[in-house]
Amino acid sequence: MNIPFVKLSAAIAVGLLSLNATAADVRFPVDMPKPKEGQLVHVPPTMDDLEKSQLHPELKRVIRRGHDLFMNTQQLRGKNVFNNMNCSSCHMGEGRLPFAGPVWPAAVTLPDFRPKNNHVNNLEERIAGCFSYSMNGTPPAYGSDDMLALSAYHQWLAKGVEMYPSAPIYGRGYPKLNDPQQKPDYKRGKQVYEAKCSLCHSNDGSGLVQNGKVVFPAVWGDNSYNWGAGIARTFTLAAFVKHNMPLGQRGTLSDQEAWDVAYYIDTQERPQDPRYTGNVKETRAKYDATFHKATNYGLTVNGKLLGDHDNTGSKPFLKPEALKPRTFTAE
Ligand code: HEC
Ligand code: HEC
């Protein structure tokens, strides 16, 4: 355990982390794009607001548990989570921040039809999606304590927003950047990565785990999200990076740098897409229209066919039960 010290010291030296700081403690400068005319702007309540609220003490207990699971999803490691992610690794600011995948919109826009799985999804199923792909795992059972707690946390964050709002939601997801001026490039992306990211995420993309605690999550490799995750799409990753990375310096990369570094990360290996049919080209073709047209999965980059393997990371199975197709059969 000697390398981590060097890395952490470096992070401290550039003033991003204080000695005992956890990732969540790092401050965010507020320099996000301003809301546009007609957009729905919502500032979700905080955990302090929860304590002060009049909600039933038992409901508060459930929401607290949901928040705790969201921030430290690693407590479900080996059961539901098989990589180094917490929900908060990608949904910054406790899932509350615009441009950082705020999670509350799901609570007011679902149930709805989702092209990714071709049927009507509710909030639990949407959460299950991030467990299956982003966490390279399998969701807690629908209706279980953990699923109830996570959904309750999402719904609490949406407090006061009307159901099915017609106005577009400010900062929802990771709003897409303008198309890059130059085609995203591996070499330029590598340069950005090594100058601005590898300090924390390491040269081989594996991040940093210290004393069993994930300090910096893996951006590729066995402990990262799998090939089916939403952020594996280059445009989603570019937008995430532009608005949220480097940690503590959001918004400092040019759009081109964000596209380049996203392309670089998206040409590295990661666990297999759980929808894998046994043939990567076939899987790509099957999900090309709805998903893989935006990833490098099943393409040959630098002489390597990406995603051509059976590696599921530390997950001992390929496809979670929750991903089975579903048809609404009632008339
Ligand atoms: C590796 C990154 C990553 C991790 C980890 C992750 N997510 Fe997500 N999540 C995404 C992406 C990407 C989207 C899609 C955003 C978009 O559509 O632009 C998303 C979308 C969502 C949405 C829908 C938000 C909306 O606007 O409707 C919810 C809810 C959600 N995630 C919950 C979770 C939960 C709960 C966890 C932990 C169990 C989690 N996510 C872990 C990347 C991640
Ligand atoms: C100072 C350390 C630091 C630097 C520098 C940094 N990150 Fe991160 N990154 C983090 C942390 C910590 C998280 C998880 C968010 C949280 O827990 O608050 C994260 C999350 C991520 C994620 C989502 C989770 C995952 O592992 O895939 C991506 C992608 C990412 N960073 C990419 C980048 C890129 C690209 C750069 C360089 C432009 C960069 N980061 C620079 C610390 C850093």
Automatic annotation (TrEMBL):
Keywords: Heme, Iron, Metal-binding, Signal. PROSITE patterns: CYTC. This is Cytochrome C. It comes from Pseudomonas flexibilis. Residues 73-158, 184-269 form the Cytochrome c domain. Residues 312-331 are annotated as: Disordered. One of its GO terms (molecular function) is electron transfer activity. Gene3D superfamilies: Cytochrome c-like domain (1.10.760.10). It comes from the Bacteria. It holds the Pfam family SoxA-TsdA_cyt-c. Residues 1-23 form the signal peptide.
